[in-house]
Amino acid sequence: MKIPFCTFFYLVLTCNSSAQVVISGKIESKSGQPISLVSITLSNKNSNIIQAYAISDKNGSFRLVWSGQADSVKILASSLGYAKKEMIIPFVSATINFILEQAIIELKEVKAKTPPVWQRKDTINYNASEFKQQQDRVIGDIIARLPGVEVKPNGQILYNGKPINKYYIEGLDLLEDKYGIANNNIPAESVDKIQVLENHQPIRVLDSVYFSDRAALNIKLKNTAKMRLIGRAKLGIGASPFLTEDELTAMLFKKKLQFINTYKYNNTGLDNTRELTSHNIGEYINAIQNGAVKSDLVSLAQPGNPSIAPKRYLFNNAHVASVNQLMPLNATHQLRINASYVNDFQQQQSTRSTRFYLPTDTIFISEQNKFKSNLNHLQTDISLLANTPKYYLKNNLKFQGWWSAERSRLITTTEINQQLTNPFFNLTNDFRLIKTKTNYIQEWGSYVGFVSLPQKLTVLPGLYDDIVNNNLPYDGLMQEASLKTFYTDNYLSLRKRKSRMSAQYKIGFNIQSQNLLTDLLLDEGGIKKSVADTFQNNLHWKRYRIYSENNWSYENNKWRFSFSLPVNYNSINYSDTLLKAKSTENGFFINPSATAMLQISPMWSLSATASYNQGFGDISGISSGYILKTYRNLSNNNAPLAKTEAGNISASVTYRNPLKVVFFSTGIMLSRSKSNLLYSQQFNGNLETLLALRQNNYSNRATISGRLSKYVIDWKTSLGLNYSYGFGDQQQLQQNKLITFSNKNFSVGATISTKLSSKITADYSGTYSTYQSKSQIQSVANKIASANQTFSLNYYATDKLIFRAGAEHYYITNNFSPSANYYFADMSVRYKPKKSKIDYELAAQNLFNTKEFTTVLLMNNIETVSQYQIRSRQAIFKMSFSF
Fold first, then answer.
1. What is the CATH number of the domain that holds 38?
2. Higher pLDDT, 10 or 245
C-alpha cells in the first residue's frame, strides 16, 4: 500500500503546487490619503466573472491571491463616493497602486439579491430560499440539497465528509444530538438561512485552547418565526387496509425559551422513531465501553431490514411522542429537558435461505418467518447547562427503559415457535465542570451508571434432544440470560496554553462491576429443569482501571499538530461460582495517536492521522457455559480473556470554495488488527456452535472514499458524486481448518436536484455497488452487484396546486441466486387554497403493487438470500394545518 499512498499525496501536492499569483498594493486619494473599505476584484481580461477579491484595510492596503491560469487579468477598484478605476496587467505577482478620484454618483433604484452561499470568517451561510422548493415541508428537505452537506439514511449530517458536532437553533442547543427532531418538524418556510460553523468548538472555555476540526450547523429563522408559537397538525385516512397518519407539533424559539413538542401516529410504514436517533459518536463509543448500550444476549433468528425505504416494508402501528424544552434559570445557567416515548407494534413476513460453505461440506438452511413485536421505549434526559468564556458546567441525568415482547413462527424442516421477552433499563448521571484559573484551565468529570438487561428466549418444540436431553423428546427450550452492570469514571484534567503551544494532562480511574447469569432450561409437561452445568453461567466481573491522558498540540497560520499519549493500567478479576474458577488479568497499555493538518490555502487543506490501540476484551468473551443465542446458534467462550491490538493510518484532502459553491473531500484509511482469540465454527445439522480458541487472529483493511458537490447558480442545480473502494482480509477457523477470507467492495453514487423551469423541479439519486469474497478453498470468488435509482418530478400547475411523481428501481445480481429487478412508483397531488393555512393532499404508494423484495448478503463463507413482504398498493388523503 505504500506506493498508492505516496502517489496519492504526490498528485495532491502537484495539483496544488501551481504558482499562486499574489497582487498587492495600496489605495489612495489624490491628496495621498489612504482609502479603506475599497472593493478590489480580479477577473480574466475578457470576462466579468470574479476569480478573487479583497477589501482595503485602514491603511489602504490590499492583497489578492489566485492560482488560476491567464495571460492577463483585469483589476477593478471601486468604492462609494469614488470613480471606479480599472487596470489590465500581466498575470504575474506584482505590486500596483490605485489613486481614486472623488465622484458624485447618482444612485439608481436597485434590488439587492442575496447570493446562494457566502462566507464570513469561519461561517458559511446558505440562503434557504435559494435551495427551497415549493413542495418542501420541513428544514430537512432543504438541508439534504446543500452542497458540502450530506444527510445519511439514518438522519446523521456530515459536512465535507465529517459528522457535525452540534446542531443549533438560533444559537441554542435545544436537542443535543437528536437533531432529527428539528430536521423533520421545523417548517421550511420559517427558515432564513442555514449556517455551517467551521472548526467549531462548542465549549466556550476551550475556544482558544482546544482546536476542533468538526463543524456545527446553526438554523437562523425568519423574524416572523422567532417570537410566536409555530404549530403543525396533520390528519390522514386511507386504505388498504384501513390507514391513518396523524401528527401534532408545537414549537417556540425565543431567546429565553425554546421548545419542540411532537406527537405522531401512523400505520402507513413511516418510521418516525428515526428522528429520535442519537448522533453523538463519541458518546456512543463511551457508552459501549461503559456497558450502557443495549447489546442483546439472545435474539430471534430473523433477517435484518432490507436496504429500501421503511415505507415499503414496515408493517407498523406506531405512536411516537417527544418533549424538548430549553429554559434559562438565570443569566448563565439553563435547564434542558428531552423526553420521548415510543409504542410500536410491528409484524413482518419473510423467507431466508442461508448457505455455509465449509472445507468439506455445504450447509443449507431455509426459513419462513412470521414475526411480531410490541415495543415500548421511554427515554428522559434532564440537563443543567452553563457555557461561558470562563465557566462550563454540564450535568446529564438520563434514564432509558425498553420493554419489548417478540414472537416468531418459523417453518424450516419443522415448525418452530419462538418468544422473546426483552426488557432493558439504564440510569446514568454524567457531570462535567470546567473553570479557568490564572494560568490554566481545570476540569472535573464524574460518570455513574447502572444497566439491567434480563432476557428470556423460549423455543417450541424441544430441539437437539441428542445434545441436551440424552436423545429423549421434550416440549421446549428456555434460555434465560441476565446482565447487570455498574460503572463509574472519574477524572481531573489541567489544560494550559502558551503562545502557539497547548497541553492537557488528565488523570482518572474507572470501575466496572458486572454479573452475567444464564441458564438453559428444558420444559417437560410444564416442569422446567436446567439442562446441565455446562449450559449455565454465573460470572462475576470487576475491572479497575487507572489512566493518564496527555495531549500536546501546536498550531500556526498553516500547520496544526497534535500528539496524544494515553497510558492506562487495567486489573480485571472474574470468577464463575458454578465452576468455582477464578482468574485475574493485569495489563499496562500505551495507546498513542498523532494528527497533522496543513492549510495549503484558504480553499485546500490536508490532514493525516495515525493511532495505535490495545486493550482487553469484555465479559461477553469469557462465558464458559454454552448460551443459546438463537434457536440454531450455540456460543461458548471457555477461553482466556481477549487481548486486542489495532493500528490505523488515515489521510484526507479537503477543498471548499463557497464563492463558486464547490466542496470536495477524499481520503484513504489503512488498518490492521490482531486478537489472541480465534473463533471456530462447527455444525451439527442446523445447529451452529461457535467456540473461542487461543490463537492469534489478524485482519487488514484499506479504504479510499470521497465526495464532490457543486451548486450551479445559473441552473439552480445541486450536483453530488460519492465513491468508495475497499479491500481486506480476515481469518476464521472452520471444521478445525484455518481459512483466510479476502474481500473487495466498490460503490459510486450520484445525486442531482434541479429546477427545470419555473414550474418543474426534479431530483435523482443513483448508486452502483459491488462486493466480492474469496478464500483459498474456493475456486471462484462469490460476487454481488446492485444498482439503486430513485427519481422524483414536481409540477407546479399553479401556486396552489402541486403534482408529484416518483419512481424507484433496484437491481441485484450475483453468482449464487437469480438476478432480480424491482420497481416502485408513487404519485401525489397537493392543493392549498389562497390565504389558507390548510393544505390537502392525496397520495398513492406502490402503484405497481410490487409484492416482495429480495436482498443478498455475502460475508466470508456465508451467503444469505432474504425475501420480504412489501406493503401493497395504498392511497391516503391528508389534511395539514399550520399555525
1. 2.60.40.10
2. 245
What is the arithmetic mean of pLDDT over 10-30?
66
Residue 466 lies in a domain: no
Retrieve residue 117's grid coordinates: 452561499
Residue type, 284: Y
Task: At 866, give phi and psi (nearest 5°).
Answer: -115, 135
Q: Which residue has the cell 450455540?
A: 634
| 147 and 59 in a common domain | no
Domain that holds residue 36: 2-100
Give the CATH number of the domain where residue 188 resides.
Answer: 2.170.130
Identity of residue 54: A
Residue 776 lies in a domain: no
Q: List the beta bridge partners of residue 117.
A: 126
Q: 517 near 528, Cβ under 8 Å?
A: no
Mean pLDDT to the nearest integer, 798-807: 95
First-residue to last-residue Cα distance in the chain: 59
Residue 792 inside a domain? The answer is no
Whether 310 contacts 640, CB under 8 Å? no
| Best CA proximity match to 429, nearest among 390, 494, 475, 383 | 383
Q: How many CB atoms lie within 10 A of CB 25?
A: 21
Q: Are 245 and 145 found together in one domain? A: yes
Q: Do residues 67 and 183 share a domain?
A: no
For 415, the 3-state DSSP assignment is strand
Q: Identify the band that residue 201 occupies on the pLDDT scale cut at 50, 70 and 90.
A: very high
Q: Do 15 and 121 fall into the same domain?
A: no
pLDDT at residue 43, as a whole number: 87
CA 650 to chain CA mean position, Å? 19
Q: What is the spatial distance between Cα 725 and Cα 706, in angstroms, rounded to a whole number?
A: 10
Is the model's pLDDT at 105 over the cut of 60?
A: no
Q: Is the pLDDT of residue 110 over 60?
A: no
Query: Among the three residues 207, 238, 262, which one is the final residue of a domain in this structure?
Result: 262
> Same domain, yes or no, for 155 and 220?
yes
The C-alpha torsion from 770 through 771 and 777 to 780, rounded to 10°, is -10
In whole numbers, what is the pLDDT of the chain averaged over residues? 90
pLDDT at 8 over 90: no
Rounded Cα distance, 597 and 561, in Å:
6
Residue-wise pLDDT for 465-500, tens only, equals: 988 999 999 999 999 999 999 999 999 999 998 888
The reply to whether the predicted model has a pTM over 0.70 is: yes
Q: Pairing relation of β-strands 604-616 and 162-163? A: unpaired
pLDDT exceeds 50 at position 255: yes
pLDDT, tens only, 158-175:
998 899 999 999 999 999
The last residue of a domain, from among 73, 100, 127: 100
For residue 778, pLDDT over 80 is answered with: no
In degrees and rounded to multiples of 5, residue 244 shows phi and psi of -150, 145
96 and 124 share one domain: no
Residues 773, 860 contacting (CB under 8 angstroms): yes
Closest CA to 672 of 642, 647, 651: 647
Residue 296 is classified by DSSP as -
Distance (Å) of CA 174 to CA 126, 323, 540: 21, 11, 40
Whether the predicted pLDDT of 227 surpasses 90: no
Q: Which residues contact 6 (CB under 8 A, 6 or more apart)?
A: none
The edge-to-edge listing of strands for the beta sheet with 117-120 is: 117-120, 123-127, 191-197, 216-221, 166-169
91 and 134 housed in the same domain: no
Residue 813 neighbours by CB under 8 Å, 6+ apart: 784, 785, 786, 819, 820
DSSP code at position 12: H
At 438, give phi and psi (nearest 5°). Answer: -60, -45
Strand pairing category for 191-197 and 216-221: antiparallel
- Asked if the structure places residue 242 within a domain, the reply is yes
> Lowest-confidence range among 99-103, 424-428, 842-846?
99-103
pLDDT of residue 6: 41
| Residues 253 and 130 occupy one common structural domain | yes
At 2, give phi and psi (nearest 5°).
Answer: -70, -40
Domain count along the chain: 2
